[in-house]
Prior knowledge:
By secondary structure, the chain is an all-alpha fold. Helix content is 90%, strand content 0%. Helix 2 packs antiparallel against helix 4 (71-114) and helix 3 (59-68) runs antiparallel to helix 4 (71-114). The chain is rod-shaped and about 95 Å long. This is DNA-binding protein. It comes from Cryobacterium glucosi.
Amino acid sequence: MSDTGQDKRIERFGSDEDIANAEAAKRQDAKDARVRLLRSKAAVARSEADAIEAMHLDPDTLEDLLESSSPLEARRLEKSEHAISQRVTKAKAAAEAAEYEYEQAVLEQYDDSKG
């Protein structure tokens, strides 16, 4: 390529170093966006777990209801509380998985910045 052709290419696209820097910045932006997305996903998952857990009856209220209810009503209350506990367990597991994925992305980003 002639000098004028090279000069025109540099004017249009930038030098090879400029292009490499732009590509590196684009990759870094994508990694940063991924980390932000995973952080948000983990926060939402934790909020969902907390919201489900809040559905549990207060222990004193539950005790009062169980004492004053018929055996059938008491069984329904126990089943309901058990179902909530199962949902909480699943939601907490999902939240922990999301938090782990976020932590791994942060560590990968840190490792990439060191290397």
